[in-house]
């Protein structure tokens, strides 16, 4: 807000009065704004009355906020002209109306985030939305309404531009929009500007009350996925907990059979968080000893499961860390996940694969029904799997693995130099050139500078077989950064609780089930045909229809099908505004 807080009403000078009289007389002589062609820039498409409208905006604001410099003066003028200079946020008594209350509620997750320069305007906007105009003068109500709308425009511009998604970017920033090369993505997924949508906004204002129009615009830019409303409900519940004050901490290890006041504190916390249904047996006022019994142990195990902890039934240090997390911190973490909903298109595809990187799990969804749920392995810290919206472009059965040049040069080729049998023993083959069909060469045909920085002509591929790093299937995505899903021969890795160990690609737990689910409607690629194809060992490319979208997302907090919050460690450090700047993930 340019560092200026809304001040008290300023006495109108003779110059102010003269200016306002001139502006009003000019405005009364103007026709109402006609509809403006969609997608045109406001500066070139708006009627030639901008100077007069700008003068009206600045003069009106100066009556109550003389030091405030509006950022969207021209747009404000045309919007209020279209609204017959009515109010969007303030009623006739100068109090916030229903649109103001809706906007204030919409801002709540942003207000729970840690400090950020961009959020200062959001906080000021929230303050204004809760204030009544102190004077009864209509021009002061108009000035306050204009100020709120100007800040609202800045807020909407951030959402339209998907400004806040950049703080999840390390290597993924810049490739999240790679899908724009592919057709049929909803328009809402593409970054837009306020000027892009403003002509449509003016048209939508025709015949509507300003308050109703404002409420429609607020809802329009909310995430429309099925996740948003349950997450907002959970956020509201955490807000209520936060208003009651901080929670007392658990400071020692407890297990079944323990007694004392700390048992009551544990029960209170588990009851507060919804893992214990009845707190009465553990109240301090209860007669007799407070015992850590089987019921409390089961409640603690439920809590541990929701936080991806070993279900020991003991308040070890990791469990106490989660139990002692205050409601404000829980709100902040959930708010970052609500923020990350803006990575998704407003309309999810009917068939999609959703990978939650923080949970290292995958779901295949069709017609809003979960068809498959399985574990995945994702990129390690330093080679993170990026947040992306993608199309599944094809399936590859018995895929060849094109070994990344750095791995071929630094790891595999040196071993082959020491052991000529190494390549054949691991199903590797040498290939000259990057064209197709491939030209396989023998070890003896290689020049002395092969696999050096001076000669990138040669590459190594791994044929289908037990050693192939891609396993029996590869799921190609619509990006050029070599990020894809694939099988793996190392099944034992899925038994680990921490599965952020790959070089960037996503390894799936059961590729054959996923392939069958994706091709379930095909009359050609039946399970019997696929089984024979696997056995033959030849590389085959298959198309998947209807098309399947793939969303690689990062949720550290979400609500499950029962409405319960699930929590995961922030392994990629995205629950904040820091940008580590990791290098691009490459390889399986």
From TrEMBL:
<dbReference type="InterPro" id="IPR052905">
    <property type="entry name" value="LD-transpeptidase_YkuD-like"/>
</dbReference>
<dbReference type="InterPro" id="IPR036366">
    <property type="entry name" value="PGBDSf"/>
</dbReference>
<feature type="active site" description="Proton donor/acceptor">
    <location>
        <position position="486"/>
    </location>
</feature>
<comment type="pathway">
    <text>Cell wall biogenesis; peptidoglycan biosynthesis.</text>
</comment>
<dbReference type="InterPro" id="IPR036365">
    <property type="entry name" value="PGBD-like_sf"/>
</dbReference>
<keyword id="KW-0808">Transferase</keyword>
<dbReference type="InterPro" id="IPR005490">
    <property type="entry name" value="LD_TPept_cat_dom"/>
</dbReference>
<dbReference type="InterPro" id="IPR038063">
    <property type="entry name" value="Transpep_catalytic_dom"/>
</dbReference>
<dbReference type="InterPro" id="IPR002477">
    <property type="entry name" value="Peptidoglycan-bd-like"/>
</dbReference>
<dbReference type="GO" id="GO:0016740">
    <property type="term" value="F:transferase activity"/>
</dbReference>
<protein>
    <submittedName>
        <fullName>Murein L,D-transpeptidase YcbB/YkuD</fullName>
    </submittedName>
</protein>
<dbReference type="GO" id="GO:0071555">
    <property type="term" value="P:cell wall organization"/>
</dbReference>
<feature type="signal peptide">
    <location>
        <begin position="1"/>
        <end position="34"/>
    </location>
</feature>
<dbReference type="Pfam" id="PF01471">
    <property type="entry name" value="PG_binding_1"/>
</dbReference>
<keyword id="KW-0133">Cell shape</keyword>
<keyword id="KW-0732">Signal</keyword>
<keyword id="KW-0573">Peptidoglycan synthesis</keyword>
<feature type="domain" description="L,D-TPase catalytic">
    <location>
        <begin position="351"/>
        <end position="527"/>
    </location>
</feature>
<dbReference type="GO" id="GO:0004180">
    <property type="term" value="F:carboxypeptidase activity"/>
</dbReference>
<feature type="active site" description="Nucleophile">
    <location>
        <position position="505"/>
    </location>
</feature>
<dbReference type="Pfam" id="PF03734">
    <property type="entry name" value="YkuD"/>
</dbReference>
<dbReference type="GO" id="GO:0008360">
    <property type="term" value="P:regulation of cell shape"/>
</dbReference>
<dbReference type="GO" id="GO:0009252">
    <property type="term" value="P:peptidoglycan biosynthetic process"/>
</dbReference>
<comment type="similarity">
    <text>Belongs to the YkuD family.</text>
</comment>
<keyword id="KW-0961">Cell wall biogenesis/degradation</keyword>
């Amino acid at each position: 807000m340019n560092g200026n807080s809304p001040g008290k009403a300023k006495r109108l000078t003779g110059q102010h009065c003269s200016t306002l009289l001139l502006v009003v007389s000019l405005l009364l002589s103007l026709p109402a704004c006609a509809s403006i062609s969609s997608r045109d820039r406001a500066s070139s498409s708006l009627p030639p009355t901008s100077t007069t409208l700008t003068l009206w905006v600045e003069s009106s604001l100066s009556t109550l906020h003389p030091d405030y410099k509006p950022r969207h003066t021209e747009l404000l003028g045309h919007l209020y002209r279209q609204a017959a200079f009515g109010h969007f946020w303030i009623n006739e008594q100068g109090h916030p109306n229903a649109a103001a209350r809706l906007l204030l509620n919409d801002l709540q997750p942003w207000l729970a985030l840690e400090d950020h320069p961009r959020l200062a305007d959001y906080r000021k906007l929230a303050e204004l939305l809760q204030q009544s105009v102190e004077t009864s003068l209509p021009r002061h109500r108009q000035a306050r309404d204009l100020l709120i709308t100007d800040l609202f425009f800045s807020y909407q511009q951030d959402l339209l531009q998907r400004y806040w998604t950049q703080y999840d970017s390390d290597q993924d920033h810049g490739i999240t929009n790679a899908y724009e090369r592919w057709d049929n993505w909803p328009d809402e997924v593409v970054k837009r500007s306020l000027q892009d949508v403003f002509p449509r906004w003016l048209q939508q204002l025709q015949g509507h009350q300003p308050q109703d129009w404002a409420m429609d615009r607020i809802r329009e830019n909310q995430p429309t996925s099925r996740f948003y409303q349950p997450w907002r409900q959970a956020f509201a519940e955490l807000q209520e907990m936060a208003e009651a004050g901080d929670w007392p901490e658990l400071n020692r290890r407890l297990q079944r059979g323990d007694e004392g006041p700390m048992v009551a504190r544990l029960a209170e916390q588990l009851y507060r968080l919804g893992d214990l249904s009845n707190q009465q047996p553990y109240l301090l006022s209860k007669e007799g000893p407070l015992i850590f019994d089987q019921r409390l142990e089961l409640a603690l195990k439920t809590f541990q499961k929701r936080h991806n902890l070993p279900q020991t039934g003991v308040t070890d240090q990791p469990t106490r860390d989660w139990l002692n997390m205050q409601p404000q911190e829980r709100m902040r973490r959930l708010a970052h996940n609500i923020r990350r909903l803006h990575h998704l298109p407003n309309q999810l595809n009917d068939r999609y694969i959703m990978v939650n990187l923080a949970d290292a799990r995958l779901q295949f969804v069709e017609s809003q029904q979960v068809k498959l749920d399985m574990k995945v392995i994702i990129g390690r810290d330093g080679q993170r799997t990026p947040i992306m919206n993608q199309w599944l472009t094809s399936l590859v059965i018995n895929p060849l693995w094109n070994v990344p040049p750095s791995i071929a040069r630094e790891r595999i080729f040196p071993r082959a130099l020491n052991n000529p049998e190494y390549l054949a023993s691991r199903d590797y083959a040498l290939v000259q050139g990057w064209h197709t069909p491939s030209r396989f060469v023998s070890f003896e045909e290689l020049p002395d500078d092969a696999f050096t920085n001076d000669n990138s002509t040669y590459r190594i591929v791994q044929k289908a077989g037990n050693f192939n790093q891609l396993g029996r299937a590869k799921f190609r995505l619509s990006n050029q950064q070599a990020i894809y899903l694939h099988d793996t021969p190392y099944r034992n890795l899925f038994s680990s609780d921490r599965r952020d160990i790959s070089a960037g690609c996503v390894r799936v737990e059961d590729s054959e089930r996923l392939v069958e689910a994706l091709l379930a409607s095909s009359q050609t690629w039946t399970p019997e045909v696929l089984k024979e194809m696997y056995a033959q060992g030849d590389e085959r490319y298959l198309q998947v229809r209807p098309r399947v979208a793939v969303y690689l997302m990062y949720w550290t907090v979400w609500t499950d099908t029962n409405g319960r919050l699930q929590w995961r460690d922030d392994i990629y450090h995205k629950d904040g505004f820091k940008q580590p700047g990791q290098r691009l993930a490459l390889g399986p």
